[in-house]
């Protein structure tokens, strides 16, 4: 490409013509980049009355959920409300941990509280990270336990390509989902909790004397859109789950990895306008079977919840606190990993890299049949190698063990982490399934090393502690 540009410039007879030629050439380059980015986005459109998939683009590709994570936080909140465990006026106390979350947030001080309803409204409009964490701690005792409850519920709903690590969606390399799973969750929220679903159509609410406006700009713009949730981090790009109802037709659509809020919204609007007329006017009944459990600990025991599932990116995502003042234009934004789209820097071009081939055998989550969204109480899938996407880049890892039992491989990861905490401080453990002579084995690896030298250096340090290992490229 550089040689082609130089050729164009060298053939120009004057500096002005050279500049004009170069500008024209760069226009084509930018168009190619934009096309490449669009090809790596994920999207799905599901007929919410029949479960038929009307459109799909990399719907099973692994993505960071960003604030779409809060949909599951609200699912478990609605479930607790429906069972009478909490009410809309129950106090939600903010711990020091919840209060310290990065913006966007309500800004409640440690020890302060709001009602459950205020917490819900702050999540669906402002995408308040502190409220999501506070609700998670209220329902789970602590956020880590609540995250396991979220993953357990995801498995029960048939969301086999999803793992949650926190309640709000702030960057965590081990937290991932798929567009298909988010569509499943969007459908489940409406079907299972119609009495609370109206919260998602809230465009603003009063918090004290402050009017807080929502991030979902399709509400009121596209006829029939009634929610559900937006999301953004630099690693995820711009995400959106939308529900739309028009007469006897109903859709749930998902767009993930948008390069800006505006382009993502336009893509969603195009999908709705194209596929809503093709949706069925017949059908009905729950597409996603309820998976109730009065004992959350028992529910956790039924679901395989690995502590580490994916290697970290080359640069570990870090939440960066920002000013959460809204602006009118997606182009006028500030840098950081805030979950506020209105103050987020769209840096998607820096995040997309060609996926490298994965040499190990990947145990993929089962695909969902076209005419059915999910089957209830689906069997969980084991931890697997990451499917390399724009949001989960590949890199170097070190292998420390291999076992025919995943639990043993995971136990070795935990033991190694305790033996060499400093060496593995910036690494993430995960297991890799592979077949040999008809038997499935699990490799125990630590990922997140940005280069071969970094992996070898870590391995050398482990060997000094009498821990055998070797470096491998993902």
Automatic annotation (TrEMBL):
Residues 308-317 have a biased composition (Basic and acidic residues). GO terms for molecular function: peptidoglycan binding; serine-type D-Ala-D-Ala carboxypeptidase activity. Residues 1-31 form the signal peptide. SUPFAM superfamilies: beta-lactamase/transpeptidase-like, Sporulation related repeat. GO terms for biological process: cell wall organization; peptidoglycan biosynthetic process; proteolysis; regulation of cell shape. Keywords: Carboxypeptidase, Cell shape, Cell wall biogenesis/degradation, Hydrolase, Peptidoglycan synthesis, Protease, Signal. Residues 308-348 are annotated as: Disordered. The active site is at residues 67, 70, 127. Coiled coil: none annotated. Substrate binds at residue 229. Belongs to the peptidase S11 family. This is D-alanyl-D-alanine carboxypeptidase. It comes from Rhizobium loti (Mesorhizobium loti).
């Amino acid at each position: 490409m550089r040689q082609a540009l130089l050729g164009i410039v060298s053939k120009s007879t004057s500096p002005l013509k050279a500049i004009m030629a170069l500008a024209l050439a760069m226009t084509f380059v930018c168009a190619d980049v934009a096309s490449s980015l669009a090809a790596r986005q994920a999207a799905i459109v599901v007929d919410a009355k029949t479960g038929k998939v009307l459109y799909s683009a990399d719907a099973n590709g692994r993505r960071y959920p960003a604030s779409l994570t809060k949909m599951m936080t609200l699912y478990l909140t609605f479930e607790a409300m429906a069972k009478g465990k909490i009410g809309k006026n129950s106090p939600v106390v903010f711990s020091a941990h919840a209060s310290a979350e990065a913006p966007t947030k309500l800004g409640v001080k440690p020890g302060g509280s709001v009602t459950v309803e205020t917490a819900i409204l702050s999540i669906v409009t402002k995408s308040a990270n502190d409220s999501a964490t506070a609700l998670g701690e209220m329902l789970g005792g602590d956020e880590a336990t609540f995250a396991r409850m979220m993953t357990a519920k995801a498995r029960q709903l048939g969301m086999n390509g999803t793992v949650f690590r926190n309640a709000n969606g702030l960057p965590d390399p081990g937290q991932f989902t798929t567009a298909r799973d988010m569509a499943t969750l969007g459908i489940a929220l409406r079907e299972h909790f119609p009495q609370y679903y109206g919260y998602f159509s809230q465009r603003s609410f009063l918090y004290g004397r402050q009017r807080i406006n929502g991030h979902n700009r399709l509400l009121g713009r596209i006829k029939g859109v009634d929610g559900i949730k937006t999301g953004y981090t630099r690693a995820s790009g711009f995400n959106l789950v939308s529900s739309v109802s028009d007469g006897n037709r109903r859709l749930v659509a998902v767009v993930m990895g948008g390069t800006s809020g505006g382009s993502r919204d336009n893509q969603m609007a195009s999908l709705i306008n194209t596929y809503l007329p093709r949706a069925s006017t017949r059908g009905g009944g729950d597409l996603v079977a309820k998976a109730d459990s009065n004992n959350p600990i028992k529910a956790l025991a039924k679901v395989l919840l690995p502590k580490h599932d994916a290697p970290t990116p080359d640069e570990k995502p870090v939440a960066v606190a920002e000013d959460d003042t809204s602006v009118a234009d997606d182009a006028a934004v500030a840098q950081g990993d805030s979950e506020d789209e209105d103050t987020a820097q769209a840096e998607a071009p820096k995040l997309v890299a060609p996926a490298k081939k994965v040499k190990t055998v990947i145990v993929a989550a089962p695909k969902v049949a076209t005419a059915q969204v999910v089957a209830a109480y689906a069997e969980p899938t084991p931890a697997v190698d990451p499917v390399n996407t724009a949001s989960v880049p590949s890199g170097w890892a070190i292998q420390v063990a291999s076992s025919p039992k995943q639990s043993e491989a995971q136990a070795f990861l935990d033991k190694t982490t305790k033996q060499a905490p400093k060496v593995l401080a910036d690494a993430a453990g995960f297991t890799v399934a592979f077949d040999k002579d008809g038997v499935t084995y699990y490799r125990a690896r630590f990922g997140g090393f940005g280069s071969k030298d970094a992996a070898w250096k870590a391995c050398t340090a482990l060997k000094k502690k009498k821990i055998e290992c070797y470096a491998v490229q993902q």
